[in-house]
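FAQ: What does the model actually see?

It sees only this:
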Amino acid sequence: MRQMDQKLFTETRPLYVTSRENPHVIRCRVRMRDLIDSDAFRHAVDTAMQRYPYFCVELQRRDGEFYFAENHRPVVVTNSLHGVELNSADSNFHMIAFCWQDNWIILDVFHGLTDGTGAYEVLRTLLYYYCSERYGVELSDEGIRLVGDEICEEEWADPVASRSDLPAPSRNDVPAALNVIDAAGLEDDRRSTVYSIAISESEFMMFTLDNDGSPATMVSLLLSRAIARLFPDAQDVIRIALCVNQRHALGAPLAHQSLIGGVMLEYKDEMRDWPLERQGTIYRAWSLPRPWKRPCLRARPPTPG
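And it is asked to produce this:
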C-alpha cells in the first residue's frame, strides 16, 4: 500500500496566497436533464473517491512543513448550491466536497490540489457511476478512471518536484493592466455572480475556425474587444491571462497536480482596427506552446489551519 503522506511542493504557494475572502476554490457545475437522485449521487461520490486516494487528504503541518495526509472521513455531500468551506469541520477537513440541488451537480476542490484537468477526471468518474445507477444503463468506460484501476507513478507523483532542469527566467516588469472594476467606478464586494450563457457549440466552433482562432483564444479576444468598446479612452493596457495546461511541457500527461501556467494576451492599440480573423490569428499564435512556459501555479484553496 502506497504511503499517503505527501510533502507539499507545487501546492505550497497557493496556501500562502489564500484567505476566506479569496478562497481559491475551483467550482465545477454540471446541469443534468433530470432531478438529482440523492441516494444514487451519494453512492456515486463514495465510489468515485475510492479511485482518487490522492484527493482524499487533509492538510497537516509538522515541524514547519505542510503535508497532505490520508483522510478517512467521508467526503461531504450537501443538498445546497452553497456547499461547505473546505479544510474545515464542515468538510470533514477534506480539500474536496460535492453538493447538489434540483438538477445541478457541483464539485468544489482546492485549486492547489488540482486544476481543471484533474477536476474533470473526477467529474467523468462521478458521472459514470451516477448515471449507471440513476438510469440503470451500461455505459462505455473508455477514457474514464474507475475503481480497480492501477494508479501508476506518473499519475501520482508531482512532475515538478522531481525536476532539476527547469529554467528560472528573469522577471520582466510589465505595464499595469486595465482594472475593469476601478475603471467602471465600482466597488469590489467579492460576491460571486454566475452568468449562464447558452450558445450553439457547433456554430461557435465554426465561427472560431472561420476566424483562425481556438475556443479559448476566441473567448479572450471577444472579451478584449468588449472591454475596449466599454473603455475606449483607458490608458492602461487590456490584458487577458489565458491558462495553459503544462502537462505536455513537463512530459506528464497523467499527473493530477495543479499544473497551470499562463500566457498574457494583450489587445494592443495597433490591432484594434484589424479584421477579426487577423486578430484571431495573432491571439492564437501568442497562445501556442513555446519550448517552456514555467508553471504559474495560481490556486484557489481553502484557508490553512
